[in-house]
Amino acid sequence: MDYQRPNHVETPEEQARVQRSEWQYLKIFVVVVVAIVLVAAISFGMQVNKSMGELVNERPAAAPAQTAQKPATVPASPTPATAAADAAKPAPAAATPATSAAKAPAAASPAAFAPPAADAIPEGPMGDVIRRGEQIFLHTSTQAKAFVGNTLNCVNCHLDAGRAAHSAPLWGAYTQYPAYRSKTKSVDTFSERLRGCFMYSMNGKAPPPGDEVLVALEAYAYWMAKGAPVGEKLPGASYPKVAKPAQAPDYARGQKVFNAQCALCHGDDGQGQRSGDVQVFPPLWGKQSYNWGAGMHEVDKAAGFIQANMPLGKGNTLSDQDAWDVATYINSHERPQDPRFTGNIADTRKRFHDSAFSLYGQTVNGQPLGQGTK
């Protein structure tokens, strides 16, 4: 006989308990639904804010005013800018003879390109060659002596190891080649440009194409120009152009400026200073200086370099007139012969120096220039 549980009739207490449980479940459900809705709303709001922020950030911001950065400087012409130079800084002249008002600070201009830091040269074979190029650049007369005929180093004209703006920095030159040059009347590679530096500025001979000296220097320049736009001339990439002076450049005025502002480092005779085998300050004329084929012998280029970088630690303080005058004085002295010399000064001037800025073949103080040094 099957047993059947008799029908159970819930008591009022049991019915009330069931109702309370159902009500609690409903409240929990409502709370969960509200929480889900709040989370979704918050997430949506964050996405909206992010999108609005991106739209705002995409709007071009007003460019902040750039303060013209003055490069580190060296004495009245190419020089190695060593720590010893700080101790030899010339004191401001109380009354520089024939010196017009000091040049006013340059107006704000775009900041110059920033090359990699010296300690950022990578490790490995490429880094080794870059470091080799750096050493050649800093100590050219000893590290590449087979190709150098004077006591100058690359850093004398390209300051701060080739970094300083307004002193023909490596980062400004490397990206400009290949390029047509009126000096050679051909399209030159950067390596060919370096060969010319050895011939003229270093008064030596050009390393053969592919020589390790050229490879190392080019590797150093390549690394220095990392991030620079190819083919675009950047601010500070060369020597600045100095405005035409109010008076024609004058030897006598230039000598006074030289004596007051330059002689302390370069000597009264312009032959610089040495410490042992190290040329601390370079000679500005004579047999140990750049020859008549170097770009620095042109008065306008020398004036630009001097005005922007000289005296040491005081660049942009000489007036335009002073820069033109002292550049004229420096380049009115004899120096090594132009390697392109044809055997005749007048002919050589006509072919290679037909410029108002070259004193080659001109007569200054009764002395014809272009004889060369012995």
Descriptive account of the structure:
The chain has 374 residues and is mostly helical. Among the domains are: 120-238, Cytochrome c-like domain (Cytochrome Bc1 Complex, Chain D, domain 2, Orthogonal Bundle), CATH 1.10.760; 239-374, Cytochrome Bc1 Complex, Chain D, domain 2. Helix content is 40%, strand content 5%. It contains 13 helices and six strands. Strands 1-2 form a two-stranded antiparallel ribbon. Strand 1 and strand 2 (186-188) form a beta hairpin. Helix 3 (125-138) packs across helix 8 (212-224) and helix 7 (190-200) packs across helix 8 (212-224). The longest helix is centred in the first third of the chain and has 47 residues, at 12-58. It is elongated, with a radius of gyration of 36 Å. The termini are far apart. The model is unreliable at 1-6 and 45-108 (pLDDT under 50).
Strand order across the biggest sheet?
Answer: 1-2
Overall geometry comes to: elongated
Give the helix/strand class: mainly alpha
Per the CATH scheme, the topology name of the domain at 239-374 is Cytochrome Bc1 Complex, Chain D, domain 2
Q: Give the CATH H-level superfamily of the domain at 239-374.
A: Cytochrome c-like domain
Q: What's the helix count?
A: 13
**Unreliable stretches covering 5 or more consecutive residues:** 1-6, 45-108
Major sheet: 2 strands, antiparallel
Give the termini distance in whole angstroms. Answer: 142 Å
The proportion of residues forming helix, as a percent range, comes to 25-40%
Radius of gyration, CA atoms, in whole angstroms: 36 Å
Number of strands: 6
Beta-strand percentage range: under 5%
What's the architecture of the domain at 239-374, going by CATH? Orthogonal Bundle
